[in-house]
Structures are given as structure tokens and as C-alpha cells.
Amino acid sequence: MSADEVVTQAAQLITSGDFAGAMAVFEGYIDSNPDDPAGYHGWAEAALFDIQENGNLDDKGNDRINEGQINAYFRRAASMAPENADYNAAYANALVEFDRIPMAVRQLHKLVEIGNASDETDVSFHLYEAARGLIEAIDLKTNFDRSAPIARQYISEAVTFALLGLGFSSAEEAIEYLGLEE
To answer: How many domains does the chain have?
Structure first.
């Protein structure tokens, strides 16, 4: 089965809420195509959707799906296709989701580099969405105390990613527009 067929089949399962089924489809694809990042990315996406929809704790308080494996699969897909903005953004978002903020910020810097390296690759949407998620994660981690050290350290990074996501070439350029008087 081709990668497109696998993605289509898995997307149908995800749409119907069968995340485990989609993960199984991607596992089969990974087994037969271990050098294709699409399988790893797809499995991790399906697993993350499952966690977001159903939580990750079973009746005994244990993780249903190993978050480390999700991160490892996102990281593998991103490293196998380092120029793929979607894979790199998904990895950064998973890091935010699992409260690995410093790692997420490093990954987002890689995403900025991907965008800077090619005029054909637009990462603005990814950066804007990641900035929103990053600020939400920091607010939750600090109980909305933006004077906390981690907030002071990473809020400025998140704002910079948001400004880049809005299409500014730099935070400095955005500040110039904010300083204009009419």
C-alpha cells in the first residue's frame, strides 16, 4: 500500500474516532517502510489525537500511550525529513503538549531556519499556532504568573514566534510598526 493510501485509510479511521486503528495502520506501514517518515509522523499524530480526545491515563493511573514513544516518532520523522515544516512543527507542538518547553523552543527555532532557508516554504501558520500553544502551556505551568522565571524566559520567545507567524521578518520590524504615530 502506498503512503497516500495509508494516510487516506488512517484519516478515515481518525475521523471516525478510531485512533488505535489508525495507529495500527501506521504500524503496519512502518514495518514495511521503515525509511519513510510518513509512517512515524502518522502514528504519532494519531496517538496524540487519541490522548487529546480521551486523556492518557487508564483506570490504574498509568499512561495508556507512551508519551516518550510519541515524541520519539515525531523526532524521527523530523530528523528523516529535516526540511519538512509540517513534521518539524508537529514535533514542536508535541513537545509543548508534553510540557517540554525548552525543547519545544529549540525545535521552533529549527522551524524558523526551515522558513528562512526557502522562499517556497511558509512556516508562518506553524509559528503562530505554536506561539499560542507555548503561551498557554507557560500560563498553565506558572498558574498565570508571567513574572515566574520560566515565563520571563520563554514568553518573549513565544511573542517573537507569533510576530514571525504574522509575517514580520523580525520582532524588531514589528516594533517599528508599533512605534509609528499617525
So the answer is: 2
